[in-house]
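Friendly challenge for the regulars: who can give me the structure tokens for this chain first? No prize, just bragging rights.
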Amino acid sequence: MATIAQPSPAMYSAVLHVLGNTDPYTRSMSVTMSDLVEYLNVEQAACLPQAVGEVLPLLSKDPERLRFAAHLAVNFDLFEAAPKLAECALTFDDRELILAAAWLCGNPAVNATVRHRVANAVADDAAGLIRLDPTCLPKTEDEICLYSQCWPGVRTKSSPLSQTPVVVLDGGYPADAALRFAICLDKAGASVRRLSQGAEIPCWFGAQTVLVCQASTRSRVLNSYPHFPERQILVEAISRDNREIEGLLHRVNGALTGPHRLSLGVLGPEVEYAVWAPEVFTAGAYSTKEAAFLAGTTSSSLNRLRVQGVLEPRDRGILLWTFRDVVAVRTWVYLKSMTSRRVSSKVVKELARFAGHSKAVRLGATSSGRVLVDQGDGWDDVVSGQRVMGIDIIYIDEVFRPFDYGGGTTLDLLQASPNTKLYPTVLSGTPHFDGHRISAKALASLDTRGQREAIEAAYPELEGESFEDTVAVGKQLLSVA
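First reply, four minutes later:
Bragging rights claimed.
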């Protein structure tokens, strides 16, 4: 999220509009930040922290909104706003603004001159000194609590204080994706810190800290903190894709060791998708043709695997396949799409045997057929239970996304279109209209009789909603049924 170019006049205007019209008494920081970030590209997002700083003086006639904007900068560690925030704090001699500026100045990326000016304004105020300097030791219980929030790297595991998770984000990520991820972290109750690539490593790396970074930053941090646990360092890409963000949030949660974890439930249904949970992973009831279509293969291939004893669908007069079966075959097809070499069907058999895992944050497979589970601290073989390292792993999350194979393209398994979801325990796993228990096939069937009028007559609650994409998915499913 390093600043690259000056924000444009249009961007200043947009930021001022959002901050100037935000109700500081009812609007949350994360919602306001979402409003600021929603339509930004990567270059604009890189300029956002500076733009927030530049508009702060323009809010000076409304002290409450100015303080709200200052706290927003603190929440998301927008250290680029520190110079203008310090200017406002000193101009108005406002203690709340001075403390906010002191917090931002705790980030080593802030200019030393700005930090010195804020330190002079703080004087002997312990609350400000602790925010600025980890060598300023706390004395009272309140000061100890504040110190543990500012400098988690000095905490001890035996601390009786409630320890808010701290997630440090590498400054080398694309700014738009990093800011969106920071918003999700804030919603989940984490304290967000941004680690500038050119600054020194601060005292942030303690028992309740997780670093999300690129490989080069991992080395920098371990040079300064050689005993910082590897399990609390996630060398990951950060994407704008909601499902990838969701998965990364779960991996962050899995890396936390103390009692205080992220509150993922507050983020909405997207991050509550627990597809690896046993009661979910083994659910679903698909016909042979529907299962084959969702898996990206043919009915004959599915039946061949059944005859060979690789898969064992339920026989209820017709054969019914589970979500687990679909994922098993789809993984095999995906692996074959990635290489010209032979891929063992053992991966189908092992995944079809896998009963799910309530603590899994991600599932993996290898071309040789091994199935691996990660509970947040590394990969374990589901058969042997042994820790696995140094091998090529395909994340099953990747299998859910569209991929080309056999001259066609598979549907996204969990979200076939913007308004079409698949969840194994909803309507037996068939794709459905998001937010409603209405299958895509039902909508498509009605559409053939009278288009939108027939659908709205059958489902009045859909009046005014956009469901054309779900109808299109339904027609694909009907064509194979």
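Residues 81 and 481 are 58 Å apart (CA to CA). Residues 266-272 have pLDDT under 50 and may be disordered. Your move, everyone else.
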